[in-house]
Amino acid sequence: MPWARSRRAPGCGLAARGTSRWWGYGGAVAVSDGNGWVECACGSRHWGRFGAAGLLLVHGPAAQVDRGPLPGNSTVLLQHRAEWSHEGGTWGLPGGARDSHEDIVTTALRETWEETGIDASAGALLGVQRTDHGSWSYATVIMRADRRGDPRRNRESRDVRWLPVADIADLPLHPGFARSWSTLAGPRVRLVVDVANVMGSRPDGWWRDRALGAQRLVDDLSPLVGELTMPEGALVALVSAIVEGAGSPVISPDPAVLVTAAPTADEHISATVGVGDVVVTADAELRVAAVARGAEVIGPRWLLNRINEAHR
User: Fold this and answer.
1) How many domains, the chain?
2) Residue 232 and residue 135 share a domain
3) Do 203 and 248 reside in the same domain of the chain?
4) pLDDT at residue 258 in the model
5) 0.70 exceeded by the pTM?
6) Which of 146, 163, 185 is the last residue of a domain?
7) How far is Cα 75 from Cα 183, in angstroms, rounded to an integer?
8) Does residue 6 fall inside a structural domain?
9) Do the domain assignments include residue 76?
10) Model confidence over 140-155: pLDDT tens digits?
């Protein structure tokens, strides 16, 4: 099922092309102002003054890969880290420090190109998984590749190769990757938010300025994507926020929060959701239509409670 077109803030590193396709990485290498160690509140040192990002690039059938769990015969691009590097000798994802002007997708694509020679920019964005320590954060960008390119290694790698998903848990993994692997390989959902309907359940003064109220709600979705899990354990890896009115000014700088301005939100959602989507709405007719297309439906109060918890 194609994703909705993204409406993103001016100046973001990548712009949506078509559905979930991304502009190719091109131009000069970033200025690397993100390089540096951070003394984290967790007691460890982490690389990346503005956080870091890596790419989980998966090759396999779209019908199985796009929502997870990842099938065992699909393959993932992994890097065997050089002995001199941090956690050397372990297997992990290509990735590195995020520069101040980059979003997480830009960083993940750039680092993958630099470390493996693979241009993954034509891949389908499947979502993100985030680990946030407060003073430092790491984002894993999940994408599906239509074809497997031939990787090459640089001085940071002992080896770079496509490996079957079924074999990954048996490798000596980078500790951070090892902790997140079961989540990354597990089920994922896209949260489809009926913004006007959810906004109406939130007495925050939205009626004084509907556009501003919608923007506040969309901004509050960003801390949830990549960290929130559904009650049955599936990761919320993407959020589609459907705003009412084709001329809506609402945007999101987060590449995992895709904002679509539709003339009629209910009709758009009814026509585009499917299996693996969770629609957030209290609209009875939309609920029936979404369920008929294979989507799940959950009420606004559940989402608003999660937002309130994230603010604490």
Assistant:
1) 2
2) no
3) yes
4) 96
5) yes
6) 185
7) 16
8) no
9) yes
10) 999 999 999 999 988 8
Torsion angles phi and psi, residue 14, rounded to 5: -135, 150
In three-state secondary structure terms, 125 is strand
CB neighbour list of residue 9: distance below 8 Å, 6 or more residues apart: 251, 252, 253
- Among 165, 185, 205, which residue terminates a domain? 185
pLDDT value for 31: 65
In a domain, 3, yes or no: no
Q: What is the pLDDT of residues 43-87, one digit of tens each?
A: 778 777 888 999 999 999 998 899 989 999 999 999 998 877 777
- The DSSP 8-state label assigned to residue 206 in this structure reads G
Tens of pLDDT, residue by residue over 219-257, are: 999 999 999 999 889 999 999 999 998 778 999 999 999
Mean pLDDT over 190-204 rounds to: 95
CB 189 within 8 A of CB 228: no
Mean pLDDT of 89-102: 92
Task: Please indicate whether residue 35 or residue 213 has the higher confidence score (pLDDT).
Answer: 213
How far out from the chain centre does Cα 290 lie?
23
Residue 221: which of 204, 196, 238 has the closest Cα? 238
**C-beta of residue 260 within 8 angstroms of C-beta of residue 275:** no
| CATH number, position 260 | 3.40.50
Task: Among 110-124, 146-160, 183-197, name the one with the lowest average pLDDT.
Answer: 146-160
Assess if residue 297 is contained within a domain: yes
DSSP 273-297: --TTEEEE---HHHHHHHHHTT-EE
Residues 93 and 56 sit within 8 Å (Cβ to Cβ): yes
Residues of the domain holding 293: 188-311
Give dist(CA 107, CA 71) in Å, integer: 27
37-39 vs 45-47, strand pairing mode: antiparallel
What are the helix (H) ranges across the chain?
62-65, 104-116, 165-168, 175-185, 195-199, 210-221, 265-272, 284-292, 300-311
- Measured between alpha carbons, how far is residue 137 from residues 50, 68, 128, 249 in Å? 8, 24, 13, 29
